[in-house]
Structures are given as structure tokens and as C-alpha cells.
User: Which sequence fits this backbone?
């Protein structure tokens, strides 16, 4: 009989040439397992992640690309809320301007508008900072996909 080794999954003795454990049915060679199961590993690349981060980073597009759906959803929701709220504030500000006969603000609307813009600015800054850190990490090669694998190839 041939040489034996211990299965790393179930600790049973199996042939050293085995591709799959006969006891626990686990594949021992990942490359063989991928071919046997017809699995194609889709490697994520740096360049698409970098472009998505630069253009739509505050909305988490690069995180969706990397498979980090939870973080992507958080960015998307926060970015959408900030964007929609800013648009609503600008529309309401234009209506106040027209209503006041060309005077842009009343005393109360100045403080309210400034408060809203400050809160929106803090939220937008936080998302922009998060995207900027991801941008730097993508360039450095420290950004990972959903499996923890670093994006190391540009194309």
C-alpha cells in the first residue's frame, strides 16, 4: 500500500496522493476542488476598485465591487440620505429666497439652514474620509475583498 497521511479535516488516515478525503469528503487540493466543482475564482482588480472609489467612493461603489456588501450598504444609505437632504435644503432655500422678495434669509432660517448644512457637512466629510482611506489602501495594496484577499493586481 502507498504512503499515508492524516486528513487535515477529520484526522483519518488517507493516501498521500488523495485529492479528496474518503471519510469526510473534503477536498484536499483547493485547485482540484475548484476544477471538480467547476468553480471559477473571480479575482478582483485594483484599477476598477480605484476608479469606483474615486468617482463613487462616498456611495460605497468600490466596496460593492470588492464584495463587502454590508459596508457598501452603509455607505450607500448614508450617502443617499446626505445627497437627498442637501437637494431638499437647496430647493427649500430657493423657495424662501423667492418668498422673501429677493432677501435670501430670515433670522430663523439662517440658523436652521446653517445647522442643517453643518450636520450634512460632517456626515459628508466622514464618508469622504472613509472613501479617501480606502483609496489610499487600494493604491498601497492593503484593500481586501470579502474573503480577506488583498487586491494586488492592477488589471
Assistant:
Amino acid at each position: 500500500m502507498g504512503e499515508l497521511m492524516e486528513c487535515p479535516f477529520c484526522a483519518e488516515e488517507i493516501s498521500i496522493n488523495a485529492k479528496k478525503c474518503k471519510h469526510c469528503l473534503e477536498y484536499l487540493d483547493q485547485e482540484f476542488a475548484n476544477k471538480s466543482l467547476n468553480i471559477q475564482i473571480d479575482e478582483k482588480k485594483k484599477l476598477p476598485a480605484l476608479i469606483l472609489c474615486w468617482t463613487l467612493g462616498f456611495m460605497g461603489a468600490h466596496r460593492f465591487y470588492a464584495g463587502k456588501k454590508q459596508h457598501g450598504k452603509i455607505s450607500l444609505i448614508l450617502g443617499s440620505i446626505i445627497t437627498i437632504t442637501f437637494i431638499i435644503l437647496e430647493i427649500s432655500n430657493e423657495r424662501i429666497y423667492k418668498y422673501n422678495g429677493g432677501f435670501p434669509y430670515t433670522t430663523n432660517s439662517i440658523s436652521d439652514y446653517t445647522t442643517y448644512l453643518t450636520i450634512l457637512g460632517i456626515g459628508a466629510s466622514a464618508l469622504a474620509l472613509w472613501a479617501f482611506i480606502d483609496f489610499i489602501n487600494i493604491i498601497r495594496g492593503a484593500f481586501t475583498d470579502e474573503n480577506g484577499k488583498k487586491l494586488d493586481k492592477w488589471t
